[in-house]
Amino acid sequence: MKGFLLSLSLLASAAVGVVASEDLQIDVTLPVECDRKTNKGDKISVHYSGTLKSNGQKFDASYDRGTPFQFQLGAGMVIKGWDEGLLDMCIGEKRTLTIGPKYGYGERAVGPIPAGSTLVFETELMGIDGVPKPESIVTKSATDSPAETPAQKVAEKVASVAKEAVKAAETFVADTDDTQEHNEL
Questions:
Q1: Domain named PPIase FKBP-type: which ranges (predicted)?
Q2: Which of 44, 79, 91, 128 is labelled catalytic?
Q3: Active-site entry in 44, 48, 83, 128
Q4: Residue 51, pLDDT above cutoff 60
Q5: Are 12 and 46 within 8 A, CB to CB?
Q6: Catalytic annotation present for 4
């Protein structure tokens, strides 16, 4: 019984994580093959166009300025949706990031962005400091490796943890089963 309750508790905890991760959707629109992907701590250059999901109104675009935006990935210099949504990306790769308020600007208005807005960014990784730009960009079919959303990653982790919890519960029940005869001595 304790094992069953433990399993239910683990699943409930994981379900909360799935809901939170729905604040970031990553769609790879131009997948690229590479040896070196972006990592936390990398200084990267990204071209982008940002729009409001509610009405499609553009609020900012580096393309309009002709200069990619540079920042250190994972250092909290940008919204959480960018810090997480631009990880494991190849130079030349394009992604659409749909970012809910929790991973965006939350319940505060910022310039032309109303409070509580869901944002859509069309992004393109232009470079990673210290990593040579490839001579040619090798794209791959989007069906070769579909983008895995954070919710899918959490779901896979939940399944793995749940499987381990079930095994542990089965072992616990087997070890405490009074109907088994124990002749160890």
A1: 41-129
A2: 79
A3: 48
A4: yes
A5: no
A6: no
Residue 24 token pair: 């970031």
Question: Which residues lie across from 124 on neighbouring strands?
Answer: 47, 94
Could you identify the residue written with the tokens 């208005």?
Answer: 109
For CA atoms 19, 46, 64, 122, the dihedral sign is negative
> Is 60 annotated as catalytic?
yes
Per-residue pLDDT band for 184 (boundaries 50, 70, 90) equals low
More confident residue, 6 or 156: 156
Q: Which amino acid is at 78?
A: V
Closest CA to 43 of 100, 126, 120: 126
Q: What is the pTM assigned to this prediction? A: 0.66
59 labelled catalytic: yes
Dist. CA 142–CA 32, nearest whole Å: 9
Q: Point out the catalytic residue in the list 42, 91, 121, 128.
A: 121
Examine the residue annotation and report whether 121 is marked as an active-site residue of this protein. yes
Q: Are the C-beta atoms of residues 150 and 21 closer than 8 Å to each other?
A: yes
Give catalytic status of residue 137 as yes or no: no
